[in-house]
Design brief:
Layout: E1 3-6, E2 11-14, E3 20-24, H1 30-38, E4 43-47, H2 50-58, E5 64-71, E6 75-76, H3 78-86, E7 90-98, E8 102-105, E9 116-119, H4 121-125, H5 128-133, E10 138-141, H6 145-154, E11 160-164, H7 166-172, E12 175-178, E13 188-195, E14 206-213, H8 219-228, E15 234-241, E16 249-255, H9 261-273, E17 274-283
Parallel strand pairs: 3-4, 3-5, 9-10, 9-11
Antiparallel strand pairs: 1-2, 5-6, 5-13, 7-13, 8-11, 8-12, 14-16, 14-17, 15-16
């Protein structure tokens, strides 16, 4: 069974085989693979769109969710940053998944038969060298990597294949014709495990937060100085526009400290000089 174990200062997730984890995408998506790596034995609940993932989580239809937050090549998943800011959820863990693209077809199909390859546009873009060398094969955009495998296998396409994870091949009983299609082998996606409840890990060494600053000269410098003054390193910072307020921005930052005195003092200082500060999660770095 799934339950939440309480401690005086935090809520720790205790996992069992029945734990329900929402993901965006079909069974076999890279998020599915990440969920199984983070929580072996969990029950994955696929969602068509990212908003649905957060809705299921907040309505207690699932215990937690696993979402991609950035890819080492394609950059951030901006929609997920916006959703983290908009909803009362908390980051519990992060995981770095090595992205390995595979060419998957129906069992009877051979590589020489393939004339079309379906996949998500990002996956297709990460396999340009394969298409350059395979001039007789057309790249066809699809809504989801695993969904493309489901489409190819489900429709028994004899001249087509899909690019997706090994997990997708297992899910839909496809045949892997070729592995390692990705151009760059340093291709990783960073995933978050999120839940409704805050989480405190005594071994946490990373904090994700969002803040907005006043439109004044030197405002960003002052905001970042609260970390520099305390020798706290930032591993990431980026900005996103504020919906409904043109030319105003929210900054997302990851600092390499957990819930210690220096980090708390820095965040209190940040709150004094910013219009808005939200802690997205305090967790152990991957």
């Amino acid at each position: 069974m799934t339950r939440w174990a309480k401690s005086p200062n935090s809520l720790s997730l205790v996992t069992r085989d029945s734990m329900k984890i929402a993901i965006q995408g079909e069974f076999g998506a890279f998020s599915h693979e990440a969920a199984l790596r983070m929580l072996p034995g969990c029950s994955v609940v696929p969602c068509a769109v990212s908003v649905e993932v957060f809705e299921k989580l907040l309505r207690r239809k699932v215990d937690a969710a696993v979402i991609p937050i950035e890819n080492s090549l394609a950059g951030p998943v901006t929609e997920h940053y916006d959703l983290l800011l908009a909803h009362p959820v908390h980051i519990h863990r992060e995981y770095l998944l090595r992205i390995r693209h595979n060419l998957i077809a129906a069992p009877q199909v051979k590589l020489k038969h393939v004339r079309r390859v379906f996949s998500h546009p990002v996956a297709l873009a990460q396999c340009r060298e394969f298409f350059r060398k395979s001039r007789g094969i057309e790249a066809v955009s699809f809504y989801d990597t695993a969904g493309s495998v489901k489409h190819v296998i489900g429709n028994r396409l004899k001249d087509a294949a899909a690019i997706a994870s090994r997990q997708a091949a297992l899910e839909y009983k496809g045949k892997i014709l070729k592995t390692g299609l990705e151009d760059d082998k340093q291709n990783f996606t960073r995933f978050f495990l999120i839940s409704r409840r805050p989480h405190r890990d005594k071994n946490a060494d990373k904090t994700s937060l969002a803040f907005s600053i006043k439109n004044q000269p030197g405002a960003l410098f002052k905001a970042l100085s609260v970390f520099a003054l305390r020798d706290i390193s930032l591993s990431k910072i980026e900005s996103r526009p504020v919906k409904g307020r043109p030319w105003e921005y929210v900054f997302y930052a990851d600092i390499m400290r957990g819930d210690d005195e220096a980090a708390r003092n820095a965040i209190h200082h940040l709150e004094e000089i910013c219009d808005f500060v939200k802690i997205l999660g305090i967790y152990r770095s991957a």
